[in-house]
Specification:
By secondary structure, this protein is of the alpha+beta class. About 25% of the residues are buried.
């Protein structure tokens, strides 16, 4: 019986440990049903400015705009690709949600996530409101969600076309 050399065992052990310890970067960019992803083809900063305008031009209120890259730069001094989470809604829809389902109120405001791609363009990701509100299986919420689908798609299209 031949016993492997110590160097061979050590090399094998190192290879196995590296394989186990190597970081695995697997992600599902759209883990939820009804996720919409749009490559805008428009530079990031002009797109986010146009999207904020498109929200109000379509009769919705901007509730907030979160900017993780701004916070990271401010706190850590690091630069990361641009990103914004737009939070927006309209009181008339809030009223309809509460009338149909108090529990569904957690789903407002609508969220749209704009990220800066490696080429500097903006990508948009959001969950279709029909999927979000349809999950409650309340006919009035499902109908409202479909209406909101049209509004959000129009805002994204307006921002892509706008300056």
């Amino acid at each position: 019986m031949r016993i492997p050399a110590t160097g061979s065992i050590a090399a094998l052990l190192v290879a196995v440990l590296l394989a186990i310890a190597a970081p695995v970067r697997a992600e599902n960019p759209a883990p939820y049903p009804d996720t919409v992803m749009v490559e805008t083809g428009k530079p990031f900063e002009p797109f986010v400015e146009a999207f904020a305008k498109a929200i109000t031009a379509n009769g919705f209120n901007v509730v907030g705009i979160a900017c993780a890259n701004c916070a990271i730069k401010g706190v850590f001094g690091e630069t990361v690709p641009g990103n914004r989470v737009f939070l927006f809604f309209k009181p008339a829809y809030a009223r309809r949600i509460i009338a149909a389902s108090v529990a569904a109120g957690i789903e407002a405001p609508i969220r749209v996530y704009a990220t800066e791609a490696a080429d500097g363009t903006a990508h948009v990701t959001y969950r279709k409101p029909s999927g979000v509100f349809g999950a409650y299986e309340v006919p009035d919420l499902t109908a409202m969600g479909r209406e909101l689908d049209d509004h959000v798609a129009r805002m994204v299209a307006d921002a892509r076309a706008g300056s």
